[in-house]
């Protein structure tokens, strides 16, 4: 089953994207495929990370919160619940990452993500309703901190045996920032043509990289 999970996840992701943004299948089917893809990522992560149980717990919590967010965003009234679910996911990831390295232990990557966050917010600001501005700023700060902390882990492990895994984690953080940036652009400054074909591949790449950062059982 372990060997089947990567191709099954890829197949489910492709079908979800086709259903949501290309073939316009019934929305219930698109939602089911979207949820299934994240469930498969959770299944990939589940047996991993036994060497760092606290980190594993928070990565799984982040994935489960993301699943809630995936489903919430499928409904017209689900933006705020989805935002809160993904905020919880980023906080869970951030907390897990800080069990490995001290928060902001490499300031340059935090400065870089801070600058990116400022650019994104300045671009989106005119389209964000006044009542959403504080939640959106809080969300972007948490997202940028999570991605930056992933970069901290990769930087600190760059000359170790964990360099490959931690580089993948940092890439996952970057992909999450890109995915959410595209989603926010579609929401507040869009519409973005074929949004699902841009948002979902970067999103699931991010989740897969974060899940894969956890060591398989035989490596723990």
Helix content: over 70%
Shape: globular
Helix-and-strand structural type: mainly alpha
Strand content: under 5%
Distance between the termini: 20 Å
Total strand segments: 0
How many domains is the backbone divided into? 1
Kindly report the average pLDDT value.
94
Structure description:
With 220 residues, this protein is an all-alpha fold. The protein has one domain (5-219). 74% of the residues lie in helices and 0% in strands. The protein contains 8 helices and no strands. The protein has helices at residues 5-21, 27-45, 53-72, 79-97, 107-124, 133-156, 163-188, 195-213. α7 packs antiparallel against α8 (195-213). The two termini are 20 Å apart. The mean pLDDT is 94.
Write a compact overview of the structure shown.
The protein has eight helices and no strands.
Please specify the SSE layout and strand pairing:
Elements: H1 5-21, H2 27-45, H3 53-72, H4 79-97, H5 107-124, H6 133-156, H7 163-188, H8 195-213
What structural keywords apply?
single chain, mainly alpha, globular, 220 residues
